[in-house]
Amino acid sequence: MSQMNTEKSFVDLELENVTNVNPVLEKINKLVKWDRINKKLISKYKKSASADGRPAYPAIVMFKVLLLQRMYNLSDPQMEACLKDRISFFQFVGLSIKHSKPDHLSEGLKNLNKAISKIRYKVERTIGTLKRLYGFNRLRYVGDKKSDMVFYLSAMVYNLRKAGLKLEAVKS
Q1: What is the pTM of this model?
Q2: Distance (Å, rounded) from C-alpha 88 to C-alpha 84?
Q3: Are 30 and 117 in contact (CB under 8 A)?
Q4: What pLDDT band is residue 1 in, cutting at 50, 70 and 90?
Q5: Residue 135 Rama label (left phi>0; alpha psi -120 to 50; beta)
Q6: How many CB atoms lie within 10 A of CB 93?
Q7: What gap in Å lies between CA 77 and CA 88, rounded to an integer?
Q8: Cα dist. 87→30, 37, 97 in Å?
Q9: What is the DSSP string of the chain?
Q10: How far, in Å, CA of 56 to CA of 78, rounded?
Q11: Contact present, 54 and 102 (Cβ < 8 Å)
């Protein structure tokens, strides 16, 4: 069975004329090169049908759903309700009005979540350490250049400390 058809309906084409529904999501959609991410996801996410035989959602759709969940701190049932209710969410995700929205117990979400959890925990642990040990809860500077510098310095300190701990372990 092939993946879900993502053709747009007349209503979807008309909704594209609605602007500034959510400027943050529109900006993200323009800035991120989703095709690159999609290529990586396709190599990991090879599902073509759900457990009950429905066509699977494309990997990039499921990835964007997970991004929205993290961005707005939504549970699976809340995400499902938002996809059914918010124009900006289903436009960002790339779904059409005529298609059913992913349900919160979808196998696709579980599989994708499982595939990226090995990477996610490392990133979240690192960011947690930066916040806890190096005061990266808030920036003291205004402007991208200074903020970037503080972040890079914090990341360097983190990596140097981690390397020092590994060297100590090797010596022991």
Answers
A1: 0.50
A2: 11
A3: no
A4: very low
A5: left
A6: 23
A7: 18
A8: 17, 23, 9
A9: -PPPP----HHHHHHTT---SSHHHHHHHHHS-HHHHHHHHHHH----B-TTSPBPPPHHHHHHHHHHHHHHT--HHHHHHHHHH-HHHHHHHT--TTSPPPPTT-HHHHHHHHHHHHHHHHHHHHHHHHHHHH-TTS-SS-SHHHHHHHHHHHHHHHHHHHHHHHHHHHH-
A10: 21
A11: no
**How do residues 124-153 score in pLDDT, each as one tens digit?**
888 888 777 777 777 777 778 878 887 888
Tokens for 29, please give them. 């959609």
Locus of tokens 């209503």: 11
Number of CB atoms found within 10 A of residue 64's CB:
24
| pLDDT 10s digits, 80-130 | 888 888 878 878 888 776 665 555 556 666 777 777 887 888 888 888 887
d(CA 168, CA 172): 6
Q: Is 99 exposed, middle or buried (0-12, 13-18, 19+ CB in 10 A)?
A: middle
Beta bridge partners of 49: 55
Residues in the chain: 172
Block residue for tokens 């510098």: 149
Q: What one-letter code names the amino acid at 7?
A: E
